[in-house]
Design goal:
Blueprint: H1 2-22, E1 31-34, H2 35-52, E2 56-61, E3 65-68, H3 70-86, E4 93-101, E5 104-111, H4 132-136, H5 145-155, E6 159-165, E7 169-177
Parallel strand pairs: 2-4
Antiparallel strand pairs: 1-3, 4-5, 5-7, 6-7
Length: 183
């Protein structure tokens, strides 16, 4: 009962986050921030969990200045890290990178986990959708984390892409416009 109650609390919290993220004109408190600093902070926050799960963490964070809401950007990183943790087996690797390319700041989070089939990829941003493979895996997910990520990326005028191979892992790349605000 306790686990089920925790699951329901997570679901309610996630629904609130998704509702916030999908609101037209989502209020973002934009600052000129380094995406690398946000990624470093969030990796540090879950590093213990990743280690307990037997995952190696490979981090390469290069400066990537954006105009964004630090709390919302942290949510993006948290949700992608949470998925990497949830769908990777002990002995796997989670890779986190930030960089710039052309006119974009890039955040890449990849794992060597269970991956997704090509048939599943068109559905991953749908609310409450979970593949049969992820349903079979006791993961504790609510099925709305990636929907939240997509909405938050859009709110920052960015794009998200995914590459995945069943049995070989998944790679998410978030592209955000380079920052123009000055501190």
């Amino acid at each position: 009962m306790h686990r089920e109650a925790e699951r329901l609390v997570r679901l309610a919290e996630d629904l609130g986050r998704l509702s916030d993220a999908q609101r037209p004109g989502l209020m973002l408190t934009k600052e000129h921030v380094d995406l690398a600093d946000i990624a470093r902070e969030r990796v540090d926050a879950v590093n213990h969990q990743l280690g307990e799960h037997g995952l190696e963490v490979d981090v390469e964070l290069r400066p990537a200045m954006v105009d964004g809401d630090p709390a919302r950007l942290a949510q993006i990183v948290d949700n992608l890290l949470s998925n990497a943790l949830r769908y990777s087996d002990p002995g796997g690797t989670v890779t986190v990178r930030t960089a710039t390319h052309d006119d974009a700041a890039l955040l890449t989070i990849s794992d060597t986990g269970i991956g997704m089939s090509p048939e599943d990829l068109p559905h991953i941003y749908e609310r409450f959708w979970r593949s049969e493979k992820s349903r079979a895996r006791v993961s504790g997910g609510t099925g709305i984390g990636l929907a939240i990520v997509r909405e938050l990326v859009r709110a920052h005028d960015g794009q998200i892409e995914v590459q995945s191979t069943a049995g070989a892992g998944t790679r998410f790349e978030v592209r955000l416009p380079l920052g123009t605000l000055r501190p």
